[in-house]
Amino acid sequence: xxxxxxxxxxxxxxxxxxxxxxxxxxxxxxxxxxxxxxxxxxxxxxxxxxxxxxxxxxxxxxxxxxxxxxxxxxxxxxxxxxxxxxxxxxxxxxxxxxxxxxxxxxxxxxxxxxxxxxxxxxxxxxxxxxxxxxxxxxxxxxxxxxxxxxxxxxxxxxxxxxxxxxxxxxxxxxxxxxxxxxxxxxxxxxxxxxxxxxxxxxxxxxxxxxxxxxxxxxxxxxxxxxxxxxxxxxxxxxxxxxxxxxxxxxxxxxxxxxxxxxxxxxxxxxxxxxxxxxxxxxxxxxxxxxxxxxxxxxxxxxxxxxxxxxxxxxxxxxxxxxxxxxxxxxxxxxxxxxxxxxxxxxxxxxxxxxxxxxxxxxxxxxxxxxxxxxxxxxxxxxxxxxxxxxxxxxxxxxxxxxxxxxxxxxxxxxxxxxxxxxxxxxxxxxxxx
Length: 433
Description:
It is a single chain. The protein is an alpha+beta fold. The chain folds into two domains: 22-102 and 241-419, Beta-lactamase; 108-238, Beta-lactamase. It contains eleven helices and 14 strands. The strands form four sheets. The protein has an eight-stranded antiparallel sheet, sandwiched between helices. A two-stranded antiparallel ribbon has the order 4-7. The longest helix has 16 residues, at 2-17. The N and C termini lie far apart (59 Å). The model is unreliable at 1-25 and 428-433 (pLDDT under 50).
């Protein structure tokens, strides 16, 4: 009885906080009079609603939030299930989510802003800004034929890693717990506790300077802590912490008032929480959003709302500007969303390439997911997703908090569901910046 009463009190407290959210929805974008006004089908948007309701009812998702905007107007924005299923708190449009790797495009924008100001070039070697990286080596795995044990031979890199390598994941950096390749180097990552929230960004690069790269920079794509190192570059160049730069140069100009590296006490009632369904996969550990971390992870540390990230995405779709506040030039946004891999091997699905912290589509076929050539975006470890389609003038946003084993299925399904709602194509003309 005491537990039930405590849960009820938590629900009431959370709901009482909602009107105090400070207009989180605000005026991110106006609402379309109808989906048909922006070339979408209300009936087909209803399929998104039906599918997500079933997922929640069956317990596959604790809750979800989904948004589709087109031609500068919100055509669909619905929430489902629970923000915190264990406490019985319903999902709302103001719920705050761990967006994990959706932090990466924001960090890339920060670096590109500094490039536009002449303070760095993405062709610059990273060691220009991070002195400990002058001694970086590449780890070549060698198997002892007598014992079968793997040893690392440390050799000089063929060339220094560049800021561009950090932005497109060709730097030779990795994640210690991701995949099976480069296991000897990844074991060193685990031993050094790379990614610890007790480290600053300066601590992170200090540790990485003593661990060999997995390959020579520029020779292949490997997802990893590259964007976290990029965050440290932003700090070194700007003289601010990454959080300070984000707040003053990106969040305030765009009106992203609910985006930060942790959730303050007065907003904790809006924090979306993971949940493991009975009989389902064990929930992937998630960081505590209430704790201000020393580690301001440019690769995955932010918490945000749907409306805040919509502002960021619309800024990109507008060619770098939102509501009179310009962060980037239009050509810079196009450059960010272009393919930066070419023939460099290692990245994902056929038909897709990788730009500066965003996946981009090279062709409309091949990828196994519908979309336009040139659309781009990225996702987060807990199931979050965004993409921008310049040809169709469309933005898709999706928020769930699930285990790592399930996130890709739900994200791919949502992107397919959004594509089928388009019943009137644009003429494919370039965006007006």
